[in-house]
Design brief:
Largest sheet: 5 strands, mixed
Strand order of the largest sheet: 5-4-3-6-7
Number of helices: 6
Helix content: 25-40%
Structural class: alpha/beta
Distance between the termini: 80 Å
Low-confidence stretches: 5-28
Mean pLDDT: 86
Strand content: 15-25%
Number of strands: 7
Amino acid sequence: MTRRARCLAAAALALVTALSATACSADDDPSGRPQPVAGGAAVLPGPVPAGLALRPAPPGAPGAPAVSGALTDGSTVAFADLWATRPVVLVFFSSWCSVCAQRQDALSELARTHRDRVVFVGVATEDKAPDVQRYLREHRVEYPVVLDDDGAIWRAYAVREPPAVVVIAKDGALLRGWPGGVDAATLDGKLRELVLAS
C-alpha cells in the first residue's frame, strides 16, 4: 500500500469515527440534541391554580407514609412536600408489567387533564433506568417518576406487585388504594368524588 493510500485510509477511518460519535441515538431528538430525562424534576408541578377547591379529608383517615425518593434524573423529592399543597396520586408500575402498559396511556392523559390540581407521581421498582425511560417516552408520561431501586417505597405502601394506585389528600391523608391498579375512568371519578370540589 502506498503512502498516499495509507493516508487516505486513515482519513476515511477518522471521518467514520467522527460521524459515528455524533450520530443520533434513540435518546436524541431529530436536531441531534439529547432529550431531557423523562420523569425528572423538570416535570414537577407548577404553582397551585388559583381558586383550587378541595374536599376535606374524612376524619380519622390514616396518614400516608411520608417517604422520599430519587427521581429519574437523580434529584430528590419528598412526598410530603407534594401533598402539602394539593392531592397526590401514586402510580406504582414496572416497565415490564403488561397491565401497567395497557392502562398507562389513559393514566397519562388523566394526569394531563388534572395537571397542577392533582400531582401524579410514578414509582418504579424491579426495573432498569433505560427500560423506565423507554416506557415513559412510549406512553407519554409527563409527571415525575421515582426509581425505587430497593423497593422501600413499595413496602411502605404495602405494594407487592405492579400495578397499584394510591390517592392521597392534601396534607397527607390516605384516601384510597387499588392493589392491581385501576382504570383511568374510575380513578377520575374517585378524584372528583374524594378530593376535587369543583
